[in-house]
Amino acid sequence: MIGISLAVPGGRSASSFWQTPFYLASPAGGGADNGPAALLDLSKERYALTVATEIATAPAALLNTLETKPLSSLLSITRPGAATYVDADGLLKTAPADHPRFDYTNGRRQLLLEGPATNLLPASSDFAGAGWGKGRVSTIADQVGPDGIANSACRLVATTATGAHYTTASTPVSAGVHSLSLFVKHRNHRWFFARIFDGASSFFVCFDLQNGVVSRASAGATGTIELQASGFYRVSVSANTLAASGTIWLGLNQTGTASSAESWTPTGVEEVVIFGAQLESGPRPTSYIATAGSAVTRPADKAQLAAPVVALLRRSAASVLLQGQNLSGVGTMRLMGAEDYFPIISLNQTGDLRFDPSMIIKSGVTQPTSSFGVAISIDRTGPIRSGSYNASPPQSLATQLNATLTKAYIGRDETASPDRFANGWYDQLVIWPFRMTDADLQTKAVPHA
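^ thats the sequence. predicted structure below, dont judge the formating
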């Protein structure tokens, strides 16, 4: 009989992922480095929670014995309806009601959370149907779309007639900022335009489909272009419209320098591929909402932290790291929110990132945000709280929190007002059961890696 024994050199067992150096921090009151009590690494699909049961009263040193858990033990994600996301294969998929959307738009796995939105265009992809008028173009539904489905996308082909070449649809719009978006793919023509007309002003953007850039935008219009799977770009036009029967134009220009639809004479072979038009309220497009005859509303995501995780936030001292990317909203959005309307971490339209809500962590934060890490700490006995954004010098304030933290959420608060959602992608949430030093707080406040 031969016996074989394997051991880690030095007699130590292999470390768990929550024991790596990044997750260790020094308590502000002194003592040895200690680890977190809850860890939700959404990008790497790793979740762990303390095994302690007396979370409110246990010493911090007893709370860093963790065990792996399913996501549902730390965070519940619900949504009373379907919603789209980009899967790992790059294709546009639809998640059923109450299913989380782990989205790969930014090249890695991230949790996509959004507030409610409505696609006002009644026929989002039926460009060959009667809902879309044709101005010196033909539309043929014979292309594979970004969803990977045959014939879900259309070729938009210019005729040889002289004039502007476009397809058009109309729908009522309210006064305020609106965004028009769609998926478009270069086929054998370079210049593509999208236009919103509110009866008084024309908001026009021309896109270079060879180089993937905005080539021209008219006054009052903002354009974006982002590469998707299978050679598609998602392009958008955002503008502040009057209340009117809005008219949408999607078409082909001869050049990229015009500020409106050009009159020109094609040879009859110029064409691009289009899919998924969407017109919605707000300064930026949200995830695609398919329509087939009438406007459709995507309901809001609700990501609520489980009771043991919230109990960690209610301790006399705690520290939190939240990481994400490309967050945006229309009001004072909650990156983390609490019961009723209370924010934990919020960002307003003037760029002030705040900690509940009187303490400014960082000013001048633009939307959509870059990849970010925001770290906060609290000691209720001081009282003192601190915060750092993307390794900025920590800011501190000697005040208590307003929220009692009976509940806590990612990307929203409890009341779900449309102007409080932080739409975008989330990477990680980590909670330590103590107030860490400001030096460690600054070190932790970095984007996910």
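The chain has two domains: 15-78+302-444, 117-298.
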